[in-house]
Write a structure and sequence with these properties.
The complex is a heterodimer of chains A (337) and B (121). In chain A, 37% of the residues lie in helices and 28% in strands. With 337 residues, chain A is an alpha+beta fold. Chain A has two domains: 225 residues, ApbE-like domains (T-fold, Roll); 86 residues, ApbE-like superfamily (T-fold, Orthogonal Bundle), CATH 1.10.3980.10. In chain A, strands 1-2-6-7-10-13-14-15 form an eight-stranded antiparallel sheet, covered by helices on one side. Chain A has a three-stranded antiparallel sheet with strand order 3-5-4, with helices on one face. Chain A has a three-stranded antiparallel sheet with strand order 8-9-16, with no helix packed on it. The longest helix of chain A has 26 residues. Chain A starts with a helix and ends with a strand. Chain B is α+β, with helices and mostly antiparallel strands and 121 residues long. Chain B has a single domain, classed as mini-chromosome maintenance (MCM) complex, domain 2 (Sandwich), CATH 2.60.320. Chain B contains two helices and eight strands. In chain B, a hairpin with a 2-residue loop joins strand 1 and strand 2. Chain B starts with a helix and ends with a strand. Classes of the chains: A alpha+beta (337), B alpha+beta (121). The interface between A and B is large, with 48 and 32 residues. Strand 8 of chain A pairs parallel with strand 8 of chain B.
Chain lengths: 337, 121
């Protein structure tokens, strides 16, 4: 046989083996996913791996953990831990669960670095505006009176004794700005402990990406805040958290002005300046709290804050449609238009 | 070493092999479907290419979901905030819409056209 013919056969065989190899890798990979209504929203988990049983066991463990966190953080269930704390009228120390202690500690740290833009004592203002039941525009005097009830310094945390105390009897907590991120972080720990190397946890847009998708990054779309049918960016994500806060999810209009659910604790009114804030960082708990805080601080102060933090990037759409993204995102973000 | 015919043959084989996977996947898929869940239980799975209204009973009462040329959306719900009705229609595979108070969730099954895995909103 001539050498040239031999090379042709080898080349042909190489092509066939290459394609068979690709097919085998694809065939060998299993994807499992589940979506459930919990934490007052949709929780979606998708996992990729080689052993379906391992993936399904990990899914079961993840949803069980979410149920535990929901029992602690649901302010509208009488039997939850947060409801018990909010009913207390005395300034005595209250023993709290490790989950509650951790959420309040993260919240306090974010409150400190954002000058109080993020505040877990915002519950009275949230209730006044009533976004959970459609929303209403309160009178200025109502807002002023209620705003005075909000101050995170009134929550004293003692990590050594695992207790907290509320120094003012009218102080009430709302974990809406941290609970979903905390739950996503806890699920991430469970999945990684079980050896999961590819997957996405999506808790109502609070997303943690684990590993990649068969060698490629996961593609996470970011919704256009002024056109809910459109994405305005896609993030090519691997081992990263992506959390968005927007003014379009829960809002109402009075005289053409949008009133949304992200309330500025300092003014008592919906924060102005941003339409959407997407935080990209490694830590999903931090990302959740920061997206709310940056939205409240506004584009200018928000970017200054991000510049002062290591490993945190942000994508902002302002109320007047301007788009701002920090330099660290340039390699992973594709703008759609 | 390779004749022109050899090169054409090799390139053709590569192209046909590469194209066969998505082609087979497309042919076996047969269009998108809408899955309707109440309290975590699948109530029905219907085709997305036929205009129709689907009525289900949730925790609070009757929810109606409409499928038309815009996609699938809630058009009637007993919930107080009506957030489900205000939200945009869903039309791409993997997209989900929900009425949390009435515990109704709708999800589109099938292949994703926008080539994203999840949406941060």
């Amino acid at each position: 046989m001539k050498t040239s013919h031999l090379i042709k056969y080898i080349a042909g065989a190489a092509v066939i083996f290459f394609l068979l190899g690709l097919w085998y890798i694809k065939k060998d990979t299993v994807t499992v996913s589940d979506s459930r209504l919990t934490l007052g929203t949709i929780v979606e988990i998708t996992l990729i791996g080689k052993d379906k049983q391992v993936l399904n066991d990990a899914l079961t463990a993840a949803f069980a953990r979410i149920t535990e966190i929901e029992k602690i953080t649901d302010r509208f269930t009488a039997g939850s831990e947060i409801s018990a704390i909010n009913r207390r009228k005395s300034p005595d120390a209250i023993p709290v669960s490790p989950d509650m202690l951790r959420m309040l500690t993260i919240s306090r740290n974010v409150s400190d670095i954002t000058g109080g833009a993020f505040d877990v004592t915002v519950a009275p203002l949230v209730d006044l505006w009533g976004f959970d039941v459609g929303g209403r525009l309160p009178k200025p005097e109502e807002i002023e009176r209620t705003r005075a009830l909000v101050d995170y310094h009134r929550v004293k945390i003692d990590e050594n004794s695992a207790t907290i105390s509320l120094t003012d009897s009218s102080t009430r907590l709302d974990l809406g700005g941290i609970a979903q991120g905390y739950a996503a972080g806890e699920i991430e720990k469970i999945l990684r402990d079980r050896g999961i190397t590819g997957g996405v946890v999506n808790i109502s847009g609070d997303i943690i990406v684990i590993g990649d998708k068969m060698g490629k990054p996961w593609r996470i779309g970011v919704q256009d805040p002024r056109n809910t049918n459109k994405l305005y960016a896609v993030i090519n994500a691997k081992d990263i958290a992506i959390v968005t806060s927007g003014d379009y999810e829960r809002c109402f209009f009075v005289d053409g002005l949008r009133y949304h659910h992200i309330l500025d604790p300092k003014t008592g009114y919906p924060a102005r300046g941003c339409a959407s804030v997407t935080v990209v960082t490694r830590d999903v708990e931090l990302a959740d709290a920061l997206s709310t805080a940056i939205f409240i601080l506004g584009p200018e102060e928000g970017v200054k804050l991000v510049d002062s933090l290591k490993g945190v990037e942000v994508l902002i759409t302002t109320e007047d449609g301007k788009r701002i993204s920090t330099p660290g995102l340039s390699e992973i973000v594709e703008f759609v238009d | 070493m390779f004749t022109r015919a050899d090169k054409i043959l090799i390139i053709s084989l590569i192209v046909i092999s590469a194209a066969s996977y998505p082609a087979l996947k497309y042919l076996s898929q047969g269009g998108s479907f809408l899955e309707v869940e109440v309290e975590g239980e699948t109530m029905t799975v219907v085709r997305m290419d036929q205009d129709q209204d689907i009525t289900v009973e949730g925790r609070l009462g009757t929810t109606i979901i409409r499928i038309d040329e815009n996609g699938a959306r809630f058009i009637k719900s007993p919930c107080v905030d009506k957030k489900c009705i205000k939200s945009a229609p869903i039309e791409d595979a993997g997209e989900i819409a929900v009425c949390v108070p009435n515990r109704v969730m709708i999800r589109i099954l099938g292949e994703n056209r926008v080539k994203t895995d999840f949406i941060s909103r």
